Amino acid sequence: MNISLSPEILFYIGIFPVTNAFFWSIMLSLFLILLTLYINKRLKQIPGKLQNIAEIVVESGMSFVDSITNDKKKTKRLFPLIITMFIFITVANLITIIPGQAAITLHKSEGVVPLFRAIMSDYSMVFVLTMVTIIIVQVVAIIVNGPFGYLGKFFNFKNIFKNPKSLPLDLFLGFMDLVGEISKILSLSFRLFGNIFAGEVLTAVMLFLLPFFAPLPFLFLTILTAVVQAFVFSMLTLVFISMASEIDQVEI
Q: Per the structure, how many domains does the chain have?
């Protein structure tokens, strides 16, 4: 049993290393894009099973986003990002339950490398998704408040000029706000990465110790964790962006 915190490198494209987690993230992205195009091309007045599932996911997701934003216009703008994150993370987590993955390996000069790895157990992928959220949050806040209003969130210049004695307190509060923004990166990324990686390790250990008795309960736990973590990440993204767009009660 080999447990590695970092993903294994499958091959190189020039000097760019292609890891097993990155390889499967590309494959999953292509699959979801092709599936979306297929469903969109075969839309019918009387939907089939696949179209029914897609409509349920979209309608439920739209209703949930609207319940958070309470603004139809804002919902239409945020929904594509939120539903994309939710579906991608959910499917990326669920494909880890496909049996026989650990048996598929590549033999390299450095040793045996597993072809498959849970996508969200690679922190670099989780970090990229997190940075997409954080950048959008900051951009929305700047658009709503303007550059000077955005900086005023961290450093209250008006209050400093009016009351210079409050400078130490204002600087401290501004610093704490800045720390709060940075902590969003950690809270988003570590929650998703930690749960998926820990689940992968725990499942591997239990299968190694009890190969005939452990799989079933851990299978249900994996499915539950996959959906819950995708929901939490998407919901926090929605909440952060909504909060940034309502600092001065201005619509994005």
A: 1
Helix 72-94 / helix 20-41 crossing angle, nearest 10 deg: 130
Dig out the tokens for 244 from the structure: 């940034």
User: Helix (H, G, I), strand (E, B), or coil: what is residue 112?
Assistant: strand
Q: What is the pLDDT of residues 155-206, one digit of tens each?
A: 666 665 566 665 666 677 777 777 777 887 887 888 887 777 766 666 666 6
Residue partners of 232: CB distance under 8 A and separation at least 6: 191, 192
Q: How many CB atoms lie within 10 A of CB 227?
A: 15
The answer to whether residue 87 sits within a structural domain is yes
Tokens of residue 187, six digits: 């809270």
pTM for this entry: 0.80
Does residue 250 sit within a domain?
Answer: no
| Angle, helix 123-154 to helix 215-244, in steps of 10 degrees | 30
Is 43 within a domain?
yes
Contacts of 206 (CB under 8 A, 6+ apart): 214, 218
The encoded tokens of residue 211 equal 């190969």
Is residue 191 a part of any domain in this protein? yes
Closest CA to 193 of 2, 7, 49: 7
